[in-house]
Design brief:
255 residues, Sulfite Oxidase, Chain A, domain 2, 5-stranded mixed β-sheet, 24% strand, binds ligand MTE, binds molybdenum atom, OxRdtase_Mopterin-bd_sf, Molybdopterin oxidoreductase, OxRdtase_Mopterin-bd_dom
């Protein structure tokens, strides 16, 4: 089945039917090298499902022009990071802040903000859709998550990427998670810039996730630690995210 799938992708790519071919190919090739991802395709799922995953979920979210950007982009959920440590980092311009990448990786990272900002970046103008019924178009810039995961070298058992955040909402730390299809999607980035300026506190300074094929609550703000896991079991409520654990929203929020 995997072979069929790869063949049909190749045919599509040859025919030029897949946009931004270069980026997409890199992500997909890496994905197909991942044992966990391959086993998902090779296990019980039928060709339709597998095709949808490989083609549908790799498709790019629509991108907009600068003229289409929303004059106002509201902040939602936590508008501030929590705790003394966060406040003092904010006051110092995140000079001694670092992003941790750990869990099922060969090479755990602790990456200072200036190093992160020096990584090759992707810029995209996309529409943010909140489950509460509002949306806004903004410009986001930052490195691809794929780049960081490649630097840290995922172990083959990895199936989920978890984002730990520096805010506590109604007594619970905010966190989110995505699978490897979304983690290696070309538009999945860790944005440190929004609308041409460093990310403001209310939008999740200094770093937030953009996972453009999913609803707003998946876009973790105030990201401080990225953890590679084989399962979501045993992590907080076990459902892979703050709202998921409340039973409010689904784990997969594809749009
Ligand atoms: N850490 C954290 N991330 C979060 C939230 C939050 O409360 N805390 N709210 C989510 C929701 S529901 C939405 S719609 C977006 C809002 O992003 P914005 O404040 O930049 O508009 O962030 C998401 N990410
Ligand atoms: Mo939201």
């Amino acid at each position: 089945m995997t072979e069929k799938l790869i063949l049909s992708r190749r045919r599509l790519i040859r025919a030029g039917a897949v946009g931004a071919g270069g980026l997409l190919l890199t992500g997909c090739d890496r994905l197909f090298e991942n044992a966990a991802f391959r086993s998902v395709l090779e296990s019980g799922e039928d060709l339709h499902m597998a095709t949808q995953r490989a083609l549908g979920r790799d498709a790019l979210a629509r991108e907009f022009s600068v003229h289409e950007m929303s004059p106002v982009f509201r902040a939602n959920g936590s508008r501030e990071g929590s705790g003394e440590a966060y406040k003092s980092q904010l006051a110092q311009g995140f000079a001694d802040w670092s992003l941790k990448v750990d869990g099922l990786v060969e090479r755990p990272l602790a990456m200072p903000l200036d190093v992160l900002k020096a990584l090759p970046l992707r810029s995209q103008i996309t529409r943010h859709d909140c489950v509460e019924g509002w949306s806004a178009i903004g410009q986001w810039r930052g490195p691809r998550l794929a780049h960081l995961l490649d630097l840290a070298r995922l172990k083959p058992q990895t199936r989920y990427i978890v984002f730990h955040c520096a805010d506590v909402l109604h007594g619970h730390p905010y966190y989110e998670s995505i699978d490897l299809v979304d983690a290696f999607h070309p538009q999945t980035i860790l944005a440190w810039e929004m609308n041409g300026r460093p990310l403001e506190e209310k939008h999740g300074a200094p770093l937030r996730l953009r996972v453009e094929r999913q609803l707003g609550y998946k876009h973790a703000k105030f990201v401080t630690r990225i953890e590679a896991r084989s399962s979501l079991e045993g992590l907080y409520g076990g459902r892979g995210g703050y709202w998921e654990d409340q039973g409010a929203y689904a784990w997969y929020a594809g749009i």
